[in-house]
Amino acid sequence: MSTLKVYSTSVTGSREIKSQQSEVTRILDGKNIKYELVDISQDNALREEMRAKAGNPKAIPPQIFNGDQYCGDYELFVEAVEQNTLQEFLKLA
What we know:
Elements: E1 4-8, H1 15-30, E2 36-39, H2 44-54, E3 63-66, E4 69-73, H3 74-82, H4 86-89
Parallel strand pairs: 1-2
Antiparallel strand pairs: 1-3, 3-4
InterPro entries: Glut_rich_SH3-bd, SH3BGR, Thioredoxin-like_sf
Subcellular location: Cell projection, Ruffle membrane; Cytoplasm, Cytosol; Nucleus
Main location: membrane
């Protein structure tokens, strides 16, 4: 089974990004879904890796992947939670 990865940043001036990141991790923790947090602020190569894997040169955190498979961003994550399709979104089902 692949590892779920949430690309995030510990260094941001954006309250919106901070809030989105904490909501994603809070929901995953609440559902006991294991994931690895990847902090892109520690290394530019990680930011480039996140953008390349997402297929978007302007992608910003949080971005969610299952292994190398792109699941989506915050908006798609919230939509999946609301529609009760989180397992499918995270490619766990």
